[in-house]
Specification:
This protein starts with a strand and ends in a 21-residue tail after the last helix. It is α/β, with parallel strands linked by helices and about 425 residues long. Strands 9-8-7-6-5-4-3-10-11-12 form a ten-stranded mixed sheet. It has a two-stranded antiparallel ribbon with strand order 1-2. It contains 14 helices and 14 strands. The structure holds iron/sulfur cluster (SF4) (2 copies). One iron/sulfur cluster (SF4) binds next to helix 11, helix 12 and helix 13.
Length: about 425
């Protein structure tokens, strides 16, 4: 999520709120879900956003934005459980409070199993962007994404994808990278590109605390989690395929963000921005929290029926949350050569100590370093193409030529020549074996 603050004022020009119309309620039981346990925060809750709250939020959210474009982001749990009528009313309220010239967009994140003709007709008609959670082929997706009865869900998700494609709904995929798919990057990527026909992909690493509360406490992680090294290797492999054939036709969020950073812009994604805290969460009853990953009492801001959204977004508490990302950055990160893109990553994952013993190093550091070192030269070339007004997709021709030259060197290498792969070994002891 991305947001911008006014330069001369603490009042944000724009911010995002992820709205949970059914709280954490979901029709699936994904084993790595960090949100299901949030139901415990509301033991008496009926987990339904009522019309008064929906209208109050819509009014406050639109009024607070000082930019012409506003996006409503619907999340869960499973937001489609709120029903189509809920979203119809949401659009009516948006229309009621919209200012002249304002563009209002809607984005919804779903597990996909409830999608049908009716939903997809609605999403197409009102130009919703749909995010669909899908982790790869059967053995990878179904390893953890199961229903309440523990049954696999991929077939039902793929039926939902068919509806999206049938109705030409804009969608992107959100793939969690976890212990069951991290060793199969190309299988996952090709599945998304081929079978799902996805053109916009996000790969989110599972780094999940293993504790009773579900809060960001303690350093133990669940077995679904991946290491930094695994995550970096997963993304590097996908990058090597993407950069050879898919630049300009498939958009992978982390590569886009990296390109923006190499082009001298802000990364534009909270985990890689210098500060964060402008993507809050609104629970079904109007409770506002600092971030989707910090829906816990310590990060509770207030209920929007008691205090206005603008006041909460600009409150000392939220500003402190936002700045903590930058202010708690270890010296090791401040001196890192890829700080301009990484900025220490998300605070929720800062559970390691640096080599000199300072706390606050990101658990994924090793992977980020590997990834950004691997893609750096290519990104520099693409950023230069952008600056010169040319297409970054030109990189594919450059790499094709490099690959052809390398291929020729392999084809003509003698047994005792240095191996063209650059290993430093003789060809006969390396690729010529
Ligand atoms: S804590 Fe992490 S996920 Fe939350 S806003 Fe900050 S960077 Fe983003
Ligand atoms: S790569 Fe590691 S050291 Fe560098 S900024 Fe990121 S987390 Fe810090």
């Amino acid at each position: 999520m991305n947001a911008r603050q006014g330069e001369n004022s603490r009042s944000p020009l724009a911010f995002n709120v992820m709205v949970k119309p059914r709280g954490a309620v979901c029709n699936l039981d994904c084993q790595y879900c960090y949100y299901l346990r949030k139901e415990q925060l509301y033991p008496d809750g009926d987990f339904r956003m009522d019309d008064d709250m929906l209208e109050a939020f819509t009014r406050q959210y639109i009024r607070a934005q000082q930019v012409p474009e506003v996006t409503f982001a619907w999340q869960g749990g499973e937001p489609l459980l709120a029903g189509l009528e809920f979203f119809e009313r949401a659009l009516q309220f948006q229309q009621k409070y919209s200012r002249p010239g304002m563009i209002i967009k809607n984005a919804v994140q779903t597990n996909g199993v409830l999608l049908d003709d009716e939903w997809c007709r609605f999403f197409k008609r009102y130009d919703f962007l749909v995010g669909i959670s899908i982790d790869g082929p059967h053995e990878m997706h179904d390893a953890y994404r199961v229903d309440k009865g523990g049954q696999p869900t991929l077939d039902r998700v793929m039926a939902g994808v068919e509806y999206l494609n049938k109705h030409n709904v804009d969608f992107n995929t959100l793939t969690c990278v976890h212990a069951a798919n991290v060793d199969y990057p190309l299988e996952v990527y090709r599945f998304l590109r081929g079978k799902v026909e996805a053109h916009f992909m996000q790969f989110i690493p599972i780094v999940l605390r293993d504790n009773e509360t579900g809060f960001q406490e303690g350093n133990a992680l669940t077995p679904h989690s991946v290491t930094g090294k695994q995550y970096g290797s997963f993304l590097k492999t996908i990058f090597d395929e993407w950069v050879r054939r898919d630049v300009g036709t498939v958009f992978v969020q982390i590569f886009d963000v990296a390109l923006a950073a190499w082009a001298g812009e802000s990364p534009g994604l909270c985990i890689f921005d210098e500060t964060c805290g402008t993507a809050m969460v609104l629970e079904h009853n109007g409770d506002l929290y600092s971030c989707d990953h910090f829906v816990e009492p310590r990060y509770y801001l207030d209920n929007i029926s008691s205090r206005d959204l603008t006041e909460l977004v600009t409150s000392e508490q939220q500003v402190r949350f936002s700045h903590a990302k930058r202010d708690s950055l270890p010296g090791y990160c401040r001196e890192c050569s890829v700080k301009f893109i990484c900025n220490g990553g998300c605070p929720k994952n800062r559970i390691l100590s640096t080599p000199d013993g300072e706390p606050g190093l990101n658990y994924l550091c090793e992977g980020y370093r590997d990834l950004f070192a691997h893609i750096g030269p290519t990104m520099q070339y693409m950023a230069e193409e952008l600056r010169e007004g040319r297409s970054p997709a030109n990189i594919m021709y450059v790499i094709a030529q490099q690959d052809a030259r390398l291929h020729m060197r392999f084809a003509t290498a003698q047994r005792n020549d240095p191996c063209p792969c650059g290993s430093g070994l003789k060809f006969k002891n390396c690729h010529g074996r």
